[in-house]
Design a protein that fits this description.
The chain is of the alpha+beta class and about 400 residues long. It comes from Anabaena azotica FACHB-119. This is Transposase. In the C-terminal section; belongs to the transposase 35 family. Keywords: DNA recombination, DNA-binding, Metal-binding, Transposition, Zinc.
């Protein structure tokens, strides 16, 4: 099983300068390698698809890839000796990022979906670097040893679970300071909880009137963190717009704005974790809608949809369920609000109609509650649930305590 723990670190003034210089040098190298890719792409492509029998074609340039760009880092340290201050593994992560960004643009992901053209990173936009290998004894007594930086103080607000090994370490600069993210792994933790109960199942319907409604009729209200903070954000944003570009006063105000946005994001994330934790304490199987949140974010309800953060919540819920040996099943979202949960007859209703009244069987209940019951019914007998049950019944599964369901 894999998981990640993030801690805040307290570097000294000299260590903070080293981290900032490392991020800035990595940003320059990222932009340089990305420019190499664009030069090759523009030089080798041609709008003409036919030519005469006798023609002269220029010699094509060698395509930059991860391996030859990684090999060029040796010459980089010769031409620019200050790059020797960066750990080799940290520097080798840059061509890997460029490779991923460029391939997502030209080739797309495993489903063939392509992303936008990669952008050059401006000052302060490169915020994370990673050590791909890490020794366990370099993290003891609330201090972590980072190569080329030194021993940095860590605020360990929760201990690392027994048996988990640190695989990678990432350093991130945020608006309120520096953080370290530890990627942990333990291959002995079973995938399914030994006392997995498939009958402890519910369905949840997420919405804007209520954040979610369960099949049992329980609701969680929408906190609206961003809308409550809009007034304060508007004041700071106006203050930023009045400052002269490039001035220290503008930089100070931009940092203040970033802290306010991070405060909103942290509140939302904390709400998501606590809500997911409460659900997983009550149920072993949770059925959710397979929503197209990106499509919903292009409607008139975009601000409310993004403020609720459905995608982040469902991702957190799924990850916490995996860590606890439980199950989250996505089901088809179409028709969950229109179909009657009692008799299955389709009862068309517009979005502003918030109550479900079935003329066929007389079922009358809240629209979201009806949808949650439909989601639960669709999950029962799902192939994913059957596969998990077969795995759970296999003998000889080693029992080991999984991670607690707390945040």
């Amino acid at each position: 099983m894999k998981t990640s723990y993030q801690y805040k670190i307290k570097p000294t003034k000299q260590q903070a300068e080293k981290i900032d210089n490392t991020l800035e040098m990595l940003r320059h190298q990222y932009n340089y390698l990305l420019a190499q890719r664009f030069d090759w792409y523009e030089f080798n492509r041609c709008p003409i698809d036919i030519c005469p029998l006798i023609c002269h074609l220029p010699e094509l340039r060698k395509q930059p890839n991860y391996y030859n760009q990684k090999a060029s880092l040796v010459q980089l340290k010769v031409d620019r000796p200050w790059y020797k201050e960066i750990h080799s593994q940290v520097l080798q992560e840059v061509p890997k990022r460029v490779e991923l960004a460029f391939d997502r643009w030209l080739k797309g992901n495993i489903n063939g979906k392509k992303s936008g053209r990669p952008r050059f990173k401006g000052k302060g936009q490169y915020k994370t670097f990673t050590y791909t290998q890490f020794k366990q004894h370099h993290f003891v007594n609330n201090k972590i040893t980072l190569s080329k930086i030194g021993d940095v103080k860590v605020i360990v607000h929760r201990p690392i679970p027994d048996g988990f090994k640190i695989k990678t370490v990432s350093i991130t600069k945020k608006s309120d300071g520096y953080y370290v993210t530890l990627s942990l792994e333990d291959q002995t933790v079973p995938a399914i909880k030994p006392d997995f109960n498939p009958d402890s199942i519910t369905g949840i319907d997420v919405g804007l009137k209520e954040f979610l409604t369960t099949a049992d009729g329980e609701t969680v209200s929408v906190p609206q963190h961003y809308r409550k903070a809009q007034k304060r954000l508007r004041v700071i944003q106006k203050r930023v717009s009045r400052r002269k570009k490039g001035s220290k006063r503008r930089q100070k105000t931009v940092k203040q704005l970033g802290k306010q946005h991070k405060k909103v994001a942290d509140k939302r994330k904390d709400f998501h974790f606590k809500t997911a934790n409460n659900l997983l304490k009550k149920y072993d199987v949770i059925a959710v809608e397979d929503l197209n949140v990106k499509g919903l974010a292009r409607t008139r309800l975009a601000k409310s949809v993004l403020d609720a953060g459905w995608s982040s919540f469902l991702l957190i819920l799924t990850n916490k369920a995996v860590n606890a040996g439980l199950l989250v099943i996505p089901v088809k979202a179409s028709g969950t609000s229109q179909d009657c949960s009692s008799c299955g007859v389709k009862v068309p209703k517009k979005l502003h109609i918030r109550w479900h009244n079935c003329p066929n069987c007389g079922c009358s209940l809240d629209r979201d509650h009806n949808a949650a019951i439909n989601i639960k019914n669709r999950a029962q007998g799902h192939r994913v649930l059957k596969a998990q049950l077969m795995s759970a019944r296999e003998p000889g599964v080693a029992e080991k305590p999984t991670l607690t369901r707390s945040r």
